[in-house]
Write a structure and sequence with these properties.
Number of strands of chain B: 11
Radius of gyration of chain A: 13 Å
Shape of chain B: globular
Strand content of chain B: over 45%
Low-confidence stretches of chain A: none
Mean pLDDT of chain A: 96
Order of helices and strands of chain B: EEEEEEEEEEE
Low-confidence stretches of chain B: none
Largest sheet of chain B: 7 strands, mixed
Shape of chain A: globular
Number of helices of chain A: 0
Number of strands of chain A: 10
Number of helices of chain B: 0
Structural class of chain A: mainly beta
Largest sheet of chain A: 6 strands, mixed
Oligomer: heterodimer
Helix content of chain B: under 10%
Order of helices and strands of chain A: EEEEEEEEEE
Distance between the termini of chain A: 37 Å
C-alpha cells in the first residue's frame, strides 16, 4: 500500500500564514482531504476535493495540490487553530484509505 | 447529523467485540460509512469502509479478523472484531462519507465521538 508523509510539527506566529504539506504517490490520482483534531476531540473535516470547505469551516483554511503533494494553508492563523492536522486520500495502489502521520500545528 | 458509537470495552487478547454506530439526521443508506481508529498518543488509522452499495474495504491489519456491516432499517453501522490483539487497542471512530463512496470514499465529513477498545494481554 501507499504512504502519505507529513512533517511532524509546524509553528506559526499569530496572524501569519502557514502551509502544511502531505506527500505521496496516491495524490497524483486522488485529492487529499484534511482533518483538524484538537486534544480529546474527534477529527473535523476542514478541506476536501480540489479546495472545498464544509459548512462552518472558516475561509482562512484552503487547500491546493501539485503533483504528489497536497497542501493545507491557514491564512491568518488564530489561536484556536492550534491542533493536529491529518491528510488522507484514496490508496490508488490498492483498495483502501491512507492517512498521513499528522502535523502538530503550534500557534505562537 | 449525528453519529453515536457504542460497544467498546476491555477484552482479553483473542476475544471479540462488536461496535455499533447509530446514525441520525441523514439518509443513512445513501452514504459510505467508515471506521477509523486512533491508538493512544498515535495518529489516525483507517480500519474499514462500506459504500452505499454494500461493497466493503479493509486495512491489511484487520483483514480476515474484522467485518463491517450496516443495517439500513436501524440506521446503524457495525464493526465485528474477532481475534483481537493488543495492537487493536484504540479509540474507534465511526465516520460518514461525503457521498456514496463508489470510487472515492476517503472524504469523511461527520465523525462520532468514538468508543474505546482496550485489549489486555
Amino acid at each position: 500500500s501507499s504512504e502519505l508523509t507529513q512533517d511532524p510539527a509546524v509553528s506559526v506566529a499569530l496572524g501569519q500564514t502557514v502551509r502544511i504539506t502531505c506527500q505521496g504517490d496516491s495524490l497524483r490520482r486522488s485529492y487529499a482531504s484534511w482533518y483538524q483534531q484538537k486534544p480529546g476531540q474527534a477529527p473535523v473535516l476542514v478541506i476536501f476535493g480540489r479546495n472545498n470547505r464544509p459548512s462552518g469551516i472558516p475561509e482562512r483554511f484552503s487547500g491546493s495540490s501539485s503533483g504528489n503533494t497536497a497542501s493545507l494553508t491557514v491564512t491568518g492563523a488564530q489561536a484556536e487553530d492550534e491542533a493536529d492536522y491529518y491528510c488522507n486520500s484514496r490508496d490508488t495502489g490498492a483498495e483502501g484509505v491512507i492517512f498521513g502521520g499528522g502535523t502538530k500545528l503550534t500557534v505562537l | 447529523v449525528q453519529l453515536l458509537e457504542s460497544g467498546g470495552g476491555l477484552v482479553q487478547r483473542g476475544g471479540s467485540l462488536r461496535l455499533s454506530c447509530a446514525a441520525a439526521g441523514f439518509s443513512f443508506n445513501n452514504f459510505a460509512m467508515s471506521w477509523v481508529r486512533q491508538a493512544p498518543g498515535k495518529g489516525l488509522e483507517w480500519v474499514s469502509t462500506i459504500n452505499s452499495g454494500g461493497r466493503t474495504y479493509y486495512a491489511d491489519s484487520v483483514k480476515g479478523r474484522f467485518t463491517i456491516s450496516r443495517d439500513t432499517s436501524k440506521n446503524t453501522l457495525y464493526l465485528q472484531m474477532n481475534s483481537l490483539r493488543a495492537g487493536d487497542t484504540a479509540v474507534y471512530y465511526c465516520a460518514k462519507g461525503s457521498d456514496a463512496g463508489v470510487v472515492y470514499y476517503h472524504n469523511m465529513d461527520v465523525w462520532g465521538k468514538g468508543t474505546t477498545v482496550s485489549v489486555s494481554s
